[in-house]
Design goal:
Elements (H helix, E strand, L loop, with lengths): L2 H9 L5 H13 L17 E2 L5 E5 L7 H4 L7 H12 L20 E5 L12 H17 L5 E5 L1 H13 L16 E2 L6 E4 L4 H4 L6 H15 L2
Parallel strand pairs: 2-3, 2-4, 4-6
Antiparallel strand pairs: 1-3, 5-6
């Protein structure tokens, strides 16, 4: 299977009735600021360089971000922080992204999410997480150059551990705990933890530009960039 075929499968997925209903309701009702726009309202695939050495893993598309634009982290405040950090690290050609056709290009980097539909309150149910899990496994299989996974938040950290286990990399015992700057060395798909660039973290100063830049520098070092 190619990445293009996997993308088409993801976009057509309707496995989780609660998420299907929510993402489509959000796309129909819309936010007032985006009332004149056509929302994507479907699952959101990953995107980036097919030869990526750094994979950035988030939780799920935002209701009025990726669920609106059709590209993960695109068109919301979390994405503003992430893409600015990728740009400073030399992994993106521009610091902002507003839509799928805005010219953003990633270099040696691929961005994706553990769950592909916007969930109510940003909280997928365990069954929804598990139904989506094979998509990340297949991305890792297809992205053969990935040397490190940057996990944005504890949910992404756990999803990465599960995906690695599905691909034959056992989860160490005791289970490695997520933390900002946490590292899990490994021959295949080592992990680096980073607080999620949500407003809850960036507005409060829990995550600063210097902190996310250090994580990206660490990831680039592991990836040999």
């Amino acid at each position: 299977m190619s990445l293009a075929a996997l993308e088409a499968e993801i976009v057509g997925c309707r496995r989780c009735p609660r998420l299907v209903a929510w993402r489509e309701e959000v796309a129909r009702v819309k936010r007032a600021a985006h009332a004149d726009q056509e929302y994507w309202g479907r699952p959101v695939p990953g995107f980036g360089d097919i030869d990526a050495r750094v994979l950035v893993l988030g939780l799920a598309p935002a209701a009025h971000g990726g669920n609106r634009t059709g590209r993960v982290f695109t068109g919301d405040r979390s994405g503003d922080w992430l893409f600015a950090a990728l740009w400073r690290a030399g992994l993106a050609n521009q610091p902002l992204s507003r839509g799928r056709e805005d010219g953003l290009r990633l270099s040696s980097c691929y961005v994706t999410a553990a769950v592909r539909c916007a969930p109510p309150d940003n909280r997928p149910l365990p069954a929804e997480r598990d139904r989506c899990a094979p998509y990340l496994v297949r991305e890792l299989e297809l992205l053969g150059s990935v040397r490190v996974v940057v996990c944005l938040g504890g949910f992404a950290w756990d999803a990465a551990l599960r995906a690695r286990a599905a691909l034959g990399v056992p989860v160490p015992r005791p289970k490695p705990r997520f933390g900002h700057g946490a590292e899990l060395p490994s021959e295949r798909w080592p992990l680096v933890g980073c607080y999620h660039p949500s407003q809850q973290n960036t507005f409060t100063g829990r995550l600063t530009e210097a902190m996310i830049d250090q994580v990206m520098a660490t990831a680039c070092g592991i990836a040999g960039l």
